[in-house]
Amino acid sequence: MITGYPMNLLNTYLAKPSTRKALSKKPGQEGFSLIELVVVIAVLAVLTAIALPNFLGVSDDASARAAQQAVITGFKECQVKKARGEVTSTAAFEPTVLTDFGVFSDSSALTTHAAVPSAPTYLCFSGSPLALNNIHIVPKETAKFPRFGVKADGTKVCNSGDTAKTKTFNIGCDGAGAVSTFDTGSTNKWR
C-alpha cells in the first residue's frame, strides 16, 4: 500500500467502483459491432441505388430544358422582327449554341429532320411571299433526346424518336415516335 497524503488520494480514486470498471476494460471493446456496420452500409447502398438515377439525369434534363428554351427564344426573336416590320429574306435570329443540340430554321415540316443540316440557316422568313419559318432543334444523340420545334403559327411540337421508351430519365415530350401538339386538352406536352 502506498502511504502519504497524495498517495491516499490516489488509493481512494483507484478504489472507486467506476474507476475499477473503466480500468478493467480492454482497449477496443467500445465501438460498433460488425453487424451494426453491415446494417449501416446496407442502408447507405439502398439510399444510393434510389438516388443515383435521379442525379445522373439532372444534366440531361437541363440539356433538354435548354433546348426547349432555345427553340422558343429563336421563335420569339423572329416574332419581334415581324412586329417591327423587319420581314426580309435576310432577317435571322441569333442561334443558341448548345452542346447536345443544333438549332436551325426552315419551312419544312418539323418531323423531317433527323439531324442538323450541314449548312443550317437561321432565317426567320422564306418563300414568296415571305412567311415565318418553323424553328427546329435536333439532338446530336437522337436515342437520348427528343426533337423540339415551334411551328410558324406558334404551336410547340416534339418528336421523341424513341418508340421503345428506353430513356433513363423522363424529359421532353410524351407520345413516343409521334409529333405532338401541345394544346390544353392534349396528353402529349412538353414537361
Outline the structure in words.
With 191 residues, the protein is an alpha+beta fold. The chain has one domain. Helix content is 36%, strand content 14%. The protein contains three helices and seven strands, in the order αααβββββββ. The strands form two sheets. The chain has a five-stranded antiparallel sheet with strand order 1-4-5-6-7, with helices on one face. Strand 5 (147-150) and strand 6 form a beta hairpin. 21% of the residues are buried. The model is unreliable at 163-170 and 176-189 (pLDDT under 50).
TL;DR of this structure?
The chain is 36% helix and 14% strand.
pLDDT below 50 for ≥5 consecutive residues: which ranges?
163-170, 176-189
Strand content: 5-15%
C-alpha Rg, in Å?
A: 33 Å
Mean pLDDT: 78
H and E string: HHHEEEEEEE
How many separate domains make up the residues?
1
End-to-end CA span? 84 Å
